[in-house]
Amino acid sequence: MTTAERGFTADGRPMSGKVALVTGASRGIGAAICATLADAGAQVVATARDTDGLSRQVQAIHEAGGHAVALPVDVTSEDSVKTLLAEVQERFGRLDAAVNNAAGGGRPPAPLVEWTSADFDSAISVSLRGVFLCLKFEIELMLASGNGGAIVNMSSTAGEQGVAGLCGYVTSKFGVGGLTRVAALDYAAHGIRVNAIAPGPILTDRLAAAGQAAQEKAAAAVPLGRIGTTTDIAAAALWLCSEESAFVTGSVLAVDGGRLAGTPAFSTSRKEAQP
Q1: Is 187 marked active-site?
Q2: What pTM was computed for the model?
Q3: Which of 26, 214, 237, 238: disulfide with 48, CB 3.0–4.6 Å?
């Protein structure tokens, strides 16, 4: 199979000539996805509320030889998201890929009755309604350009199984899975693929700040014996955005070291299983 048949361009990079938008791009997983897409040849539109963080990420991409622009957005605001996609259309005339990574809101873990309605609403507003708004305007631009496209929504293993104390977060991520599947069905005939990624424990700023003991505890719950990295998620996002995954839509891809596979044997640790 030739590189062209596999969706690669003449320079061997799967996203050359493509315009890709990433929300929640100022740090962590979003920043890693921006860097990976840029390295794969995309013109990256990095978006978030943290304009200083965006500027740092865009500068790093430029220093690495990539192409990126920073545009602010508040995914809880329909006007803000609509304005963002109008700016993308004005600058580039198209959108080929999008990764809806922005998340937030809610409160620290607590039993359900301790959540206020405001806590719950804030989690839904960012992590679910925000994804809906991004999907709506991203798909409108893809339809207008007539070139199809690929969209990746960021879910979580908490969107595939319940987690005590996180009612707002879990609800929003289960909703992301549903939105992903509906959008995939609605627009498959237009050549627009919509998938989601469900990360397991990933070494982002929050887990790094929790300290080594928390990281070791998280790793102990992963069959592969380690926590994931932001580059693990970025690699999956690149695959789903590229033509390498041309026959994949409506899927939620777990990138979790095997956590959702089931319960490991109680008597065999990963270390004991080594030959």
Answers
A1: no
A2: 0.91
A3: 26
